[in-house]
Amino acid sequence: MKNIDLNNSNPFLLNDFLGVLGEDFIKTHDWIFSDIDAYVLKDEEEMENNTFYKEKFYLTGDELLFNLNNFDILLVFGLVIAVKKEEVRRREVNFPKLLGNKDYWDVDYTSSITGQVIEIAFYDSSYIFISCKSEATIKKFLCKYPSFSEYTSSTFD
Fold it and tell me: Does a structural domain hold residue 153?
């Protein structure tokens, strides 16, 4: 993946955010994207025709890694879900909704995608919610982004 300046990291830059997981993790999973609002740049120029301009789509790990290696992807809003390789068939994906889905604010949220390994919700370049059962994976994000905190029912009080 592209080298990212850790001193100037931006969690809404998908390249930077998913870089925490590493190339092997990315390649060994399939990826579901839903409710996507993104900007895609190559050499600081916006790319008009890119997969990330679709509202919902599915990528293999190799396809995602290609995009991360060749473009800067700023994710403003949307869901990014990693599933076990070949667990979900491309044409059978029931894309979950983030927009208007009150369940995402539930402390005990459970993904609607069977076999999800990690589900990341990006909210208007303001909040990022991570749903993952792996404490080791969560710890990786907390090491890179120490300002992240656990969501509780009083988080926004």
Answer: no
Whole-angstrom distance, CA of residue 56 vs CA of residue 87 = 18
Q: What is the pLDDT of residues 115-143, one digit of tens each?
A: 789 999 898 878 888 888 888 998 998 88
- In which domain, by residue range, is 30 found? 9-144
The two three-digit tokens of residue 137, written as one number: 């994976």
Q: Is residue 91 part of a domain?
A: yes
**Token pair in block for residue 85:** 């390789």
Domain contains 135: yes
What are the E-state strand segments in the chain? 29-42, 45-46, 57-59, 72-84, 116-123, 127-132
- Taking alpha carbons only, the member of 59, 10, 54 closest to residue 36 is 54
| Lowest mean pLDDT across 20-24, 32-36, 117-121, 152-156 | 152-156
Considering the domain boundaries, does residue 157 fall inside one?
Answer: no
How far, CA to CA in Å, does 14 sit from each of 41, 57, 126? 12, 15, 14
Q: Total structural domains in the chain? A: 1
140 burial (CB, 10 Å; 0-12 / 13-18 / 19+) is middle
